[in-house]
Automatic annotation (TrEMBL), chains A, B:
It comes from Hanstruepera neustonica. Residues 140-202, 203-260 form the CBS domain. GO terms for molecular function: magnesium ion transmembrane transporter activity; metal ion binding. Homodimer. Acts as a magnesium transporter. Belongs to the SLC41A transporter family. The chain crosses the membrane at residues 286-304, 316-339, 359-381, 388-412, 432-448. It is found in: Cell membrane; Membrane. This is Magnesium transporter MgtE. The gene is mgtE.
Length: 449, 449
């Protein structure tokens, strides 16, 4: 039963488009879910995709458009008239409609909006476009089922039959007072299991979670996850019910947030995919590599400063990649744990405790690694003082790297900067330079140069 | 309205426990959501947490227990009798109940199960315990609303009023034939908007998504995300309806998967948090550092082999941390993009195309960086041949690092191994060694030694 995207299927679609066999195409696509059609269209070229979009009903294609890769959607929309786009928009829920419009070039947005016929839909979309996309307002939809506390169950059932038609999925029914202020919720289940002459106020639950329209989407995601909510109402400062956010949008927020942090840790500016163009990938990758290059050139300077000991203790120079790797790896580990902890709100307790813990942890790790280095030196017949100097300096470098990896993200977070930027190349590069400098200075103190 | 965990609140709770003021404690906790109570309990010591769990009704505490940190839940459960745990289990949905039991030591599991009074609940939990936790069966709950296709809307409403009591949230109503085979679905909305004498078969949607009980949870997550589902039915090979999976459990799967990949990329064995013990954190971190150390010691060997050119071209040695950093950074970038692409099923097309693309991409990046290195050499008055040798070798190292970063994860994935292990320290370490070796060999060819 599950859909499989095959080369044969794509070829079949391409031939049907070539032959302009509209009847066959329509009957073929009729079987598929809009998400599957979007997968097929992602594989076609632009003209073919536009052909299919123009061929099918806007009831189907509006959802297909929303599921397309952003780049491909942009190309397809460029080939549709403002009126055609407006027809697609009419079929979408307000949140998706606002998203689609906001992706259009400024000058087309107005044109498309003026072509929307349904006045209420138009007004609601305009309202949503005014909110910042990173806030609850930017994520919410206007579609919801709302009842007044004074209604009876029977009257309520009658009326929500009308409202529910516009709402794809009814999660909760929101109860408002006569000023449209949110005062409770009830589930469809509560409604159908209640007696028909009961008042809504009697069966509704006044313990309703909500978020403010200006709340950050990440905070909304945290609340919905914590309380296992599938939808949450959005209110303004007067507690007036404005819209609702559903879990499917939150799933996207969680994924995007995780992807972004992962890419930052790997040294990639956010929002690229393996199949993006070489130019886009270069734009995302080169800046971080240049940062790393400057760090490496910094190390060149530092080591040049110790050129005079090259003939007396050459082994120190052999160990520099090891020192840089250790400083980098420890820093990345520490920063990753803290960044993840900050994201999950699980970093608690005092800074002093964390400092002591990180020192203890890195001393244990450093000591174990230092013993291995001494053992290695013994095996290859290295001078003992040199081995000890290298091991002890490496241990110090590890402690410092752990502290930097831990506290740079914490400090950034306290200043309201995304701590995820302090992972990956940023921490590796700064720890590389500092580590190599520290290594030579400490080894110099022990060996005496 | 939103809950804030404050030191004052925790202190207040601790004092009330100390004073054994049960009445005040009960009335305090009555106001809070179970997820909030769990947050408070996570901050208390073991005895205090057990005190609260024993004090409150199992209707509340069963949910609180499920929300606790795993370590703390384990400690609390150790202090409850098998009968007390069974009472908590009675209040939980079957999926949570099975999860809680599976966390207990083997010998206690049987004892707890035998104490469950509700025979149906007991049988269902036993069934769920038999499934692998990484499969749909391990994630599903037995609670669902099921109707027969031959029923009328009115009869259906009557009967599901009974079934719905046991189901926290009714997403979809599943339609089965007389052999309990899944043949369709309908929403509560469809039901309340239908005429009461219509047959279920007339209003139900036969286009129902489902997963097989042995499907991998990550595949279930992909399907539910793709089709924006909030619940999906689970069937066996005969299409018999066995259970359903809800989106809140899938949100957890997505989070855990993202966290695991992130930690692997940062060189941390999965499943540690910033607030775990030093021992646990060391166990998660030290193995990767030892791997990095061996890589570094490998570099020592390689560089020792080139000791004879130290007096003639010392600058090569100054550049080794830079080369290692570039090889590492490029490798991590390439592997991260591929690992993410594989996770999202967005890596398509032939391997040859990907090879050509990665070579093109790394040549562009490498060329830009090589020019900077030559410029730097010019500024610091370095010998031009040396600068060019360093730049060209670095460029080759970058290309090789990109290819390794790209193809190692792809090969692992094709062999059914999680490609995420080939990110972070693994790729950095192997690229460090290979990069430094390549650097000296190529520089030697150009300069001539």
């Amino acid at each position: 039963m599950q859909f499989q995207l095959t080369d044969e299927l794509i070829e079949k679609v391409e031939i049907l488009i070539e032959e302009q066999d509209d009847k066959e195409l329509k009957s073929l696509f009729k079987e598929y879910h809009y998400a599957d059609i979007a997968e097929i269209l992602d594989e076609l070229n632009q003209d073919e995709a536009v052909y299919v979009i123009k061929l099918l009903d806007s009831e189907t294609t509006s959802d297909v458009l929303m599921e397309l890769d952003e780049d491909i959607r942009e190309k397809v929309l460029r080939n549709l008239s403002a009126k055609e786009i407006a027809e697609e928009i009419e079929e979408l829920d307000t949140d998706d409609a606002a998203d689609m419009i906001s992706e259009l070039p400024e000058e087309r947005q107005e044109e498309v909006i003026s072509n929307i016929e349904d006045a209420e839909h138009k007004a609601e979309i305009k309202e949503l476009l005014a909110y910042d996309e990173d806030t609850a307002g930017g994520l919410m939809a206007k579609e919801l089922v709302k009842v007044y506390e004074t209604w009876t169950v029977a009257g309520c059932m009658r009326r929500i039959r009308g409202q529910a038609k516009d709402v794809t999925r009814v999660h909760s029914i929101y109860v408002v007072d006569k000023e449209d202020k949110l005062i409770g919720r009830l589930s469809l289940k509560d409604l159908i299991t209640a007696k028909s002459d009961q008042k809504i106020a009697e069966i509704s639950n006044s313990n309703v979670d909500w978020v403010h329209v200006k709340d950050d989407v990440e905070d909304v995601a945290k609340i919905m996850q914590k309380y296992d909510l599938e939808a949450i109402p959005v209110v303004d400062e007067n507690q007036t019910l404005l819209g609702r956010i559903t879990i499917d949008d939150i799933v996207d927020v969680i994924r995007e947030e995780a992807d972004k942090d992962y890419q930052l840790a790997a040294g990639i500016s956010q929002d690229v995919e393996a199949d993006d163009s070489i130019l886009e990938l270069t734009k995302a990758r080169l800046p971080w590599l240049v940062l790393g290059l400057f760090g490496g050139l910094g190390s060149v300077f530092i080591m040049k400063g110790f050129e005079h000991i090259m003939s007396t203790v050459p082994s120190l120079f052999f160990y520099t990649p090891l020192i840089a790797a250790m400083a980098g790896n420890v820093g990345v580990q520490s920063s990753a744990i803290i960044v993840q902890g900050l994201a999950n709100d699980s970093v608690k307790g005092s800074l002093l405790n964390r400092l002591l813990k990180e020192i203890g942890l890195s001393l244990i790790n450093g000591l174990a690694l230092a013993l291995l280095v001494i053992l290695f030196g013994f095996i290859i017949g290295q001078d003992t003082v040199e081995s000890v100097a290298i091991a002890v300096s490496m241990m110090s470098v590890i402690v410092v790297a752990a502290l930097i990896g831990t506290f740079v993200p914490i400090i950034l977070d306290k200043r309201g900067i995304d701590p995820a930027i302090a992972t990956g190349p940023f921490i590796t590069t700064s720890n590389d330079i500092l580590g190599i400098y520290l290594f030579f200075v400490l080894a110099g103190l022990i060996i005496g140069f």
